[in-house]
Structure formats: structure tokens, C-alpha cells
Design brief:
The chain is α/β, with parallel strands linked by helices. Helix content is 39%, strand content 15%. It has two domains: 140 residues, Aspartate/ornithine carbamoyltransferase (Rossmann fold, 3-Layer(aba) Sandwich), CATH 3.40.50; 151 residues, 3-Layer(aba) Sandwich (Rossmann fold). The protein has eleven helices and nine strands.
Length: 308
């Protein structure tokens, strides 16, 4: 297989296992390029990509922009906070105006679930979902799984814990789809109020005991509490959350085996993760950041080969 089965990356749910493996093998090649002295290739020299962000983002936007420039694409950055959107312009009008500038691909982050899907149905360009509301964040899940593959090599039989605010996390849902397709065992852990009802139907287990969950897993992906998405109070306070669900060195030292700690960022140090843990030999958090560029290069390159 040398091409993706999709023309857009709207979510991991729409990808096959073969799609994911193709993205990983392509990222392997690009990671080799990123470690060279000259890190740029002309693969997308004739492609123009618009980064359209209706929500604030630093890490994801910079990672995409760097990936695009490493592939020699022409890049247009669009921020809704300083655009005609604030004057009442619709999503479709905004993007059609950008496409009138002959853009080939749109990378979009939007606060509303399904916005990238709506866009893909109405424009003649490849669309990449860089996060839509509490739905999906596919490239984050791909780089997380790629980072696991780099360390463990094999997903079958691997135990991966996703810990924290599952209810409001688009990263969690994309990770669940990705890891289960690859054959890993997935367990969710967090306060009962932050675990969606019937989430087990996606093929995962649920636990409310942090120490037992850490003992079970080989990798723990720690998610932040997304206070900006919470309209109600889901737990007594951040101190109580840290006491019951914060990953600390003391908790890791009490385990019978070493485990690997991951975090999609940004981190709330001292809440969901202790600084000593984030900066320890247990952590692959900086590897995730590096792998994000290679994964996004792979996605951009493969979609450019599949015109919309």
C-alpha cells in the first residue's frame, strides 16, 4: 500500500490500520531527514497550505508550520481572532476566500465538533483536522502512537493508560481509536465525573484507582484538566485532583516495574504531573514534540499525493 485510503485527515476513526502504518513508515523517512544538517526537502514545493486556526494554539500550529516549511510548501497563516470572522463572516466564506488565493490544503482547528468535516464537504482542497472541539485531534494521536512504537516496537499486548480529563479531551478519543486499531490494550483512569458514560463500548477498560492503573500499564499518557472547556465543577479542586490523580515520583517508585510517561501538552505541572516526573528518565514528552513534526510531514506529503 503506497497511498492513504482517504483524501482528508478528519479523524482517526476514518483511518484503517494500514493507513496508520503507512503514515508511520513515511514518518520514519522524514525523521531521518530532520536529523540531517540540511533539514529541507522539495517534496511539496508546488503546494500552498493554509493554517486556519479558530482557536488559540501554539504547539500544534508551530509544529504544522515547521513541517510544511521542511517540505518546501508555501504557507499562509490565518488567525480568527484578527480576521473578518469577528465581523460576522461565516466559516465557509472565510475558507472560500482563502481558497480563491489558490490554496491546495487547509489545516484547521475549530472549537466546534465537526467543523473540518463540514469544510471537507464544501471545498476543493485537502482538509486536515488540527482539533475540533472535544471530538478528535488525529495528528496528536498519531504522534503519540508513533512515540510508543519507537520505544516498544510492538503494539499487540501492550498496555496503555490514558489518564485525566477524558470527558473534554479530543486527544483521548483519537488515542483510543488509534491504539485499539493497532492492537494495544487501553485503560482510562480519572474521576468518575470526567469519564464519559458507556465509553467501554469503544473497546477500553475504565478504572478510578490511579495506583492500580499505573501498575497495570506499560505507557501512561497523562492529560491535563481542561478547565476552559468545563462549564461545571467536576471535582472539588486542583489540590484534591493532584492528590488523587496526579502522577508523582513517589507513585512511580512504588511500582513493581518502570513505565513510560507521556503528555500531549501543555502541562499543568503540579496538578496532573509532577515536574520531577515530566523531566525524568521515565518521560518521552520531548520525543513526542520532535515526532510531531515528522508525523505531520508524513500526513501532509501523503495527502498531497491524494488530491481532493
Amino acid at each position: 500500500m503506497s497511498a492513504l485510503s482517504v483524501n482528508h485527515l478528519l479523524g482517526i476513526e476514518s483511518l484503517t490500520k494500514q493507513d496508520i502504518e503507512l503514515i508511520f513508515s513515511t514518518a520514519d523517512n522524514f525523521k531521518t531527514i530532520l536529523n540531517r544538517r540540511i533539514k529541507k526537502v522539495p517534496s511539496l514545493r508546488d503546494i500552498t497550505i493554509a493554517n486556519v486556526f479558530f482557536e488559540n494554539s501554539t504547539r500544534t500550529r508551530i509544529s504544522f508550520e515547521l513541517a510544511e516549511k521542511r517540505l518546501s510548501a508555501d504557507v499562509v497563516n490565518f488567525s480568527a481572532s484578527s480576521s473578518s470572522v469577528k465581523k460576522g463572516e461565516t466559516l465557509l466564506d472565510t475558507v472560500n476566500n482563502i481558497l480563491a488565493m489558490k490554496v491546495d490544503m487547509v489545516v484547521m482547528r475549530h472549537p466546534h465538533v465537526g467543523a473540518p468535516n463540514f469544510l471537507a464537504q464544501h471545498i476543493d482542497a485537502n482538509v486536515i483536522n488540527a482539533g475540533d472541539g472535544t471530538h478528535e485531534h488525529p495528528t496528536q494521536a498519531l504522534l503519540d502512537a508513533y512515540s510508543i512504537r519507537e520505544k516498544a516496537h510492538e503494539f499487540n499486548g501492550l498496555n496503555v493508560l490514558i489518564l485525566g480529563d477524558i470527558q473534554h479531551s479530543r486527544v483521548a478519543l483519537s488515542n483510543i481509536y488509534c491504539l485499539t486499531k493497532l492492537g494495544a490494550n487501553v485503560k482510562l483512569c480519572g474521576p468518575p465525573t470526567l469519564i464519559p458514560k458507556n465509553i467501554e463500548s469503544l473497546g477500553v477498560e475504565v478504572s478510578y484507582n490511579l495506583q492500580e492503573s499505573l501498575e497495570w500499564c506499560d505507557f501512561a499518557n497523562v492529560l491535563r484538566i481542561q478547565l476552559e472547556r468545563q462549564k461545571d465543577s467536576y471535582f472539588p479542586g486542583l489540590r484534591e485532583y493532584a492528590n488523587h490523580f496526579g502522577v508523582t515520583m513517589q507513585r512511580l517508585n512504588n511500582l513493581s516495574k518502570p513505565i513510560t510517561i507521556m503528555h500531549p501538552g501543555p502541562m499543568n505541572r503540579g496538578v496532573e504531573i509532577e515536574s520531577k516526573v515530566a523531566d525524568s528518565e521515565h518521560s518521552v514528552i520531548l520525543n513526542q514534540v520532535e515526532n510531531g513534526v515528522a508525523i505531520r510531514m508524513a500526513v501532509l506529503y501523503l495527502l498531497a499525493s491524494n488530491p481532493s
